[in-house]
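Aim 2 progress update. The chain analyzed this quarter is reproduced below.
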Amino acid sequence: MDNGYVNARIKGMYSRLLDKKALSNLILKPDISSLITALEETPYREDLERALVGKPGLYGIEEALRQNLIRTIKKISEFLQGEKSERYILIFSSRWDVHNLKTILRGKRIKVPTMQIRENLVPSGEFDESLLSELLKQSDIKSVIDLLATWEVAYATPLIQAFPEYNAHGDLFILENALDHYYYEQALSLVNGKSTEERKIREIIGTEIDLINIKSLLMMFRDHVDLQDAEPMLLDGGKIFDRKILRLLLELGSAESLVEYMDETPYRFLSDLRTTEEDTLKISAYQHLLDEYLIRQAVRLYRGDPFSVTVVIGYLWAKYTEVMNLRIIARCKNALISPEDMEAEMVYV
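Predicted structure tokens:
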């Protein structure tokens, strides 16, 4: 399919995204009921009507957002099915496989009811509803991994390799980190060519890896993680930080020193929140800034070459951000959070 035709369809979809003014108006709604009424005047109307039949209030909104995102990713995947550029969309959709596996593993770890786990799944990658249902039927983490191995799913390999260490320490981060290592290795392998498209997508993936590593370092410093234990948790393939620099960053030993080091990198914006490693409240503020930076960099791809598949990647990030913003509004409205505090959590693109 001609990229120009696909991108014309994407531009039509982008035009229906909610702008800052629309989101700000939703923030000002006094309660969940009025929020639902306002959302019924948006492109989410049909999803809301279906979801609210079985789930009232906040749960109905979250289900509508989930289904809308699933349909959007599936629709775009169908546009590019069989095309060379389909593999670029696979990078985005596969991140939902990782999200789903982490969600199921977390749920099994703390014995969350199956229905509650299911409500947080987004079947938009390799795992459809039926496969996820089978994974949800498993009694524990080991059974989930065994089933993945039986299916010969690629994600089984890193989980099997990491399971003995998880079994010895009981820290779920070990399994989640194994999934992250695998995902980013595969993502980078799909864009190792010399084309402008692959270079731009590779840079976004590398930026994301850098930001994940910064978040990990901040939490490690807060929790006083031993250097020997910390290094394997950091991801390779970053845009700025190679393994040598990551070791140097680990040796800095504090959030304050790490943020000071960032002044010489593209991530110098972190200096706006200078603090000490003991100020744990600021860790979440750093994380929000890092997430915001990544989203803005990714959405810029939409405004690039109108005949490039990077337009699709940029739109998917913008759509994902819209859904996350709407979830924030709904959850904060349900918890009676003030509009000012709600606004601070938003990311506008």
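The mean pLDDT is 91. The CA atoms of residues 12 and 135 lie 37 Å apart. These observations will guide the mutagenesis experiments scheduled for the next reporting period.
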